[in-house]
Design a protein that fits this description.
single chain; ten-stranded mixed beta sheet
Length: about 325
């Protein structure tokens, strides 16, 4: 599929609603009714071992068994997932190249002004897979135990709480900006290019928004203190941790037509499988089932939401 294909020739995308944020599958339209007749490549803009990659491999294995062809994950990290996204946007429009679309894609649409693709024009969401909440954690040396106490402490100590993220415009970054905008607190963003967890554990940085799976063991060991999750409901693996929305109402931070329909049905069926659902939940991911129109609206709404946060906060790409 070329970048300027007609509207009905848009590519397929497997979007993982993670994060924030969380993200869903989206392939482009092709004609074959007997799809798939050869292996399907799932392009992932993250390194192996992170939640988008792990979840994509789980789903790829199940899709291979269900549809009778191999679904193979191809990791193409770099440029905040834009390398992988552009690769799929330029691929042949035959449904055999699928993108793992996460919340990073919905923020990149606003953050980067020189992209060679249009997320909403060139990619068609096929199905959601799961929504993975972030969790706001702090170093235990910070003298607060709840989200209300954190907000009060931040207001009493403006500019003294630093929060880490894996980079400008990532979901952990804009989740913090959303909390700032909704509460009026002054917390300082510290973007990292590498692993920022050691600095939070040592107390050099006081707070972070991260995936539940990243923080869970440290929370259990008492090395991090969980204040709130960013989802609308409490996370199954952190039932004692309130949602941030319980303190800040409205707060929440979470991608041929025949082929789209085939993948949507297959993915939704895979997500209904109890063992796979249990494996996703253990990662802190909430399986999310949507129709094709619902998935498309979800991507558009997330792009609009995070675009406003980025513009209002004046965030610029590094």
């Amino acid at each position: 599929m070329a970048t300027h294909d007609p509207p009905l020739a848009r590519r397929a995308v497997l979007r993982l609603a993670a994060g924030a944020a969380a993200l869903p599958l989206v392939p482009r339209v092709a004609a074959a009714l007997d799809y798939p007749t050869r292996p399907v490549r799932i392009v992932c803009g993250f390194v192996a071992g992170l939640i988008p990659d792990v979840a994509a491999r789980m789903i790829a294995q199940a899709l291979s068994a269900r549809l009778g062809q191999q679904f193979v994950v191809d990791n193409r990290p770099g440029a905040a997932t834009n390398i992988a996204t552009e690769m799929v946007a330029r691929a042949e429009a035959d449904g055999y190249t699928v993108l793992v679309l996460t919340s990073s894609n919905t923020t990149n649409a606003t953050l980067y002004t020189n992209l060679k693709f249009d997320l909403l024009r060139d990619l068609v969401p096929v199905a959601t897979t799961f929504r993975s909440a972030l969790v706001l954690t702090i170093n235990p040396a910070v003298p607060v135990k709840t989200t209300p106490e954190f907000i009060a402490y931040a207001k009493a100590n403006p500019g003294r709480i630093n929060y880490a993220s894996p980079g400008v415009g990532t979901l952990p970054h804009v989740a913090g900006e959303l909390l700032r905008a909704m509460t009026g607190i002054d917390i300082v963003h510290v973007p990292y290019r590498g692993n920022y967890l050691p600095d939070v554990l040592s107390g050099q940085v006081q707070a972070m928004f991260s995936s539940v799976s990243t923080s869970l063991d440290f929370i259990t060991q008492g090395r991090l203190r969980a204040l709130g999750v960013t989802s609308a409901q409490r996370a199954d693996v952190l039932r004692d941790v309130p949602t941030i929305a319980e303190t800040v109402p409205g707060y929440e931070a979470y991608t041929p037509a025949e082929i789209v329909a085939t993948l949507n049905r297959a993915i939704n069926a895979v997500l209904a499988d109890p063992p796979l659902r249990a494996r996703l939940i253990a990662l802190g991911a909430d399986p999310l089932v949507m129709s094709v129109p619902e998935a498309a609206k979800f991507v558009a709404d997330e792009t609009t939401k995070w675009g406003k946060v980025i513009r209002d906060a004046g965030i610029k790409a590094e």
